[in-house]
Amino acid sequence: MSLNPIDHEDLFEAPIIGGRTMPGSVKLSGHDREFKYDDKEGDGQSGASSEYKGRKLGGFLATVYLVKDDTQGLDEFAEWDDFQASVLEKSLAVDPPAALLIYHPDLLRNGYDCVSVQKIGGMTHDEKGGATVAVAFKEYAPPKTAGGSPKPKGGGQGGAAWEQGKAAPDPNAAAKAELDALVAEASKP
Description:
CATH architecture: Beta Barrel
Distance between the termini: 8 Å
Number of strands: 12
Helix content: 10-25%
Strand content: 25-35%
Shape: globular
Oligomer: single chain
Structural class: alpha+beta
CATH topology: Elongation Factor Tu (Ef-tu), domain 3
């Protein structure tokens, strides 16, 4: 069963990042998927050949629209302050910065499941009492060694254990299990 915003509206409202739903109304953009090719032109002849070299690391922008509505008991400004501090900035407060597990059906379609915070934009207020914040994310996908194990190059977690050739514990295991359960529940007829 394919996920769509008509039958599974709640999954499309906002991405789940680091185990928490991003507050506000969120618009994703730039989450295209690009691939690498090595083009080799023939010497003294026309034409060329292309060799597929894998996918490029991507990134995208999450534009968040925030409102406060006392009649509905809604204060997305307070929710945003907490989310920015406890999820986004907390991931940057460790060395190296922590990668965050992310889920949104449109991101998953293009292979985005783990990201690092690249930029947190300043809050821009409109004349109606709302505000906008743009957050840029960079895909986190460490290279795999010949044995298939990821080898971190900054931005990852568990680097010391991986460098010693041991399996690093997955810091996102609980969030991944919860996400799998949500997707399975949403996929039921």
